[in-house]
Amino acid sequence: MCEVFLGLGSNLGDRAGFLDQAVVALESLGEVTRSRWYETAAIGLPGAPAFLNGVVRLETDLVPDELLLRTREVERRLGRDPLRRAGSRTMDIDILLYGRQVISRPGLKIPHPRLHQRAFVLVPLADLAPHLVHPVLGRTVREMLADVDRAGVEAA
Predict the structure, then answer these.
(1) This prediction's pTM
(2) Cβ neighbours of 51 (radius 10 Å)
């Protein structure tokens, strides 16, 4: 079993409903624990609705490539257009961390390359694992969170 952290986000439709449905779907992949949900502005999407974001911890036997396929399936089932990777969406699931693995190839980068810069990821990740150490940066979630602006990240 591997401890994996996934970032979830939705800014269209029943955002909380989509997040809750994603958690239920992810439970078929292993044991899931989730953070609180947080409302955040849609960064880089002027005029777009706010996102509801959170993080889940998943204990799974799936290898990273299979996990990526399965999370993409969950996104599609919840209405995400698979050809549109940016912009507003019903569901976005990012693999943030997969144990202490470091993977960098087209289509799969673990740890997530912007994890340490995003308060909307670090705040809910700190709910679950504040002392978790980033496998590349060697810094804890709490330390990385201290370096980002948390403005606009509000518990829902």
Answers:
(1) 0.96
(2) 24
